[in-house]
Amino acid sequence: MAEPASVVDPPTPPDRPPAGSGRWDRGWRGELGRQLEIAALVGLVVTQPLLDVLGRSPDFFLFHRADPAQILLLVALVSVVPTAVVALLGALSRLAGPTARAVTHTGLLGLLFAALAVQVGRHVTPLRGVPLLLVALLAAAAGAVAHRRWRAPGRVLRLAAAGPVAFLALFLLVSPTSAVVLPRGDGGVAGTAQGSAVHPPVVMLILDELPLVSLLGTDGTIDAGRYPHFAELAGASTWYRNSTGVSGWTPNALPAMLTGRYPARSVAPHYSQYPDNIFTAFGGLYDIRAEESITRLCPPSRCEQPTTPEQGLGVLIRETGKLLGRVAGPTESAVDPEDSYREPTRAEAGLDAAEPVPSDPKFRWDSLDDNQPARFSTFLAGLTPTSRPTLHFLHLLMPHSPWAFLPSGARYDAPEDLPNDGAGWADLARQRHLAQLGYTDRLIGETLRTLRATGLYDQALVVVTADHGVSFRPGAQGRGMDAIKAAAGEVAWVPTFVKEPRQQTGRVDDRNWEHVDLLPTVADVAGIRLPWPVDGRSARQAPRADATKHFYDRPGEPVTFPGGVPTPPPLPTPHPLVGTQVRAGPVAGSARVADLAAFTAADPDTGTLPALVWGDVPDRIPDGTLLAVAVNGRIGAVVPVVPADPGGRRFAALLADDKLFHAGTNTLDVLQVAPDGTLRRLALS
After folding, report:
1. CB contact at 8 A, 296 and 323
2. Which of 20, 44, 508, 511 is 20–30 Å from 69 (CA)?
3. Could you tell me if 521 and 618 lie in one domain?
4. 608: which strand partners?
């Protein structure tokens, strides 16, 4: 009897060990480990810095009117997509074999190590630019070699893969932005009437980043020649000349103004964090028409949320991408999302330009009316008498940077990375600020005209002020503690005008006004009893005996300094050549000018002019050399040559007088000013 044939298992493919084999398990465990290493580094390079900045900047989401769903989707994209893209590149390399996979993984780690080294180097070393990149590449090479030779770096990275989850949890549950993502509550208790008080209409216009000293002439009064409408306002209201904001950061400063309380915690400027504010206090007796910019203090039960073209997930992704470039770049960058906030114009918003053309002779083109900020147009349209008392509120980001307006209202383009500090650049920043302040003065005039035209002017309590100022002191430009220490008079002191109903004549009150006094004063005049205690004091009460000022660079940590109306810094003295005619002489050098083509087809009727000129000159022209910039044969600015900024620019000039330009081809000349005053024309490219 024959023996049965033995049953033999089919051979196992050599490239796939059977389940449970050590080689198969080790291969997939190794791949999982590689992906965890990638996740850890991408989390440190992308997720953590972005969520850190955005978590501390709830105003970014409030400005763009993002709802919780959009924020959560953006956070998911930030947390998942970069990791997924890099991980997919590594996974695809497996198709080329284990050697290619190992080389690809090492290369990806090296790139991520380099990106991480750039960020760390910016914080712990003075290196910037190319030197920092070179050091980062060396550090990345060392990190990649260490990862290849030893197991410890890989183990550390795999443990660090839990980081992105922790960063996400901190953002959603602990950061100031968490209140915007997961709001709780709907505002505080409404105020009550003070006896039989009459409740007048209230019109509040809060400007942004406006130092008092920018408005002052040498005699300490409003410079009526430069700012006629601010002077007009001061002539019919009470000017609290010794008025100071309490913080250089709007998300702290504005809530203090509208709650009457000093900043105590670093929280979102949101109604869930500040339930007791002017909108909730007035909401029981007043209709509310509020246009906020980077706060959301008015709860949905009191205010409809306005819409703007600058909202939606696409805008959030675009601006977050720009933010990543600033965070991860090798050059210096003060990461402040607020620096990018810009008021969309009425033309951009598609508003009907039915308002009459201003009669102001500065406004030479009808189209300039389209440059009016869209939210300001909406604010003006709402200034009409109503049967119920109404609070009209607008926080307008003017003359806040980015500076883009000439005094006439014409707009101009400028590089986003143009420096605001350093030799020559701080002076240019102040000139651009003053030009935009000139345009802001026009908006004040439009407000007063509209109030008179609608009959609200005499009836209403009108308040015009700003949340904080800004320093243009070289080496201390900005609004933080360095600026406060060097130039408190520019950062803290702000214009504050209060015109009470039926007030006809102006007066100056130099009491120690701090912006926590704003709400108690407005409530007192409006006949509203506030249902919560405040730190401020109504102007109808006796002035403070103490002259001390309080400023909060960080909530809960006040810095004090003495009061007193500051002396304005001297205005820049125009060079004698400005305004003079020049003839085009022989070429004696060269210069590179950006956007030179804009001068060949300028059209003032569009409301946009090439009024900012910037570029580079050869190294043989030393720093400090003066350059005269002329349009159509008339010099509009004289500026110095300065050390090259990170963008390679060695000069920039603002041509603030739009009468230099005409329709069609305009001739631009850049001339080197010799020590003896002679001019040498530079060939432009």
Report:
1. no
2. 44
3. no
4. 411
Alpha-carbon distance 568 to 553, whole Å?
23
* Residue 609 CA neighbour count, 13 Å, CB half: 27
At residue 681, φ and ψ (nearest 5 deg) are -75, 140
Shared domain check, 515 and 588:
no
- Evaluate if pTM is beyond 0.90: no
Say if CB 231 and CB 483 are below 8 A apart. no
The alpha carbon of residue 518 and the mean position of all alpha carbons in its chain are separated, in whole angstroms, by 24
In the chain (685 residues long), the average pLDDT of successive 10-residue segments reads 45 46 57 81 84 86 84 88 84 82 82 82 81 83 85 83 87 87 72 76 97 93 96 97 95 96 92 91 90 88 63 81 80 61 72 46 50 87 92 94 92 88 90 96 96 95 97 88 91 97 95 97 94 95 94 94 89 87 82 90 83 94 93 94 91 93 91 89 91
Residue type, 286: Y
> Within 10 A of 535 (CB to CB), how many other CB atoms are there?
16
DSSP 11: P
Q: What's the distance, CA 314 to chain centroid?
A: 19
Total domains in the chain come to 3
- Domain, as residue range, for 487: 197-305+366-562
Q: Decide which of 562, 590, 614 is a domain's last residue.
A: 562
| Residue 191 in domain | no
Residue 507 sits in the same domain as residue 597 = no
| 188 lies in some domain | no
8 Å CB contact between 118 and 132: yes
Query: What are the strands, taking DSSP E only, across 46-201?
Result: 192-193
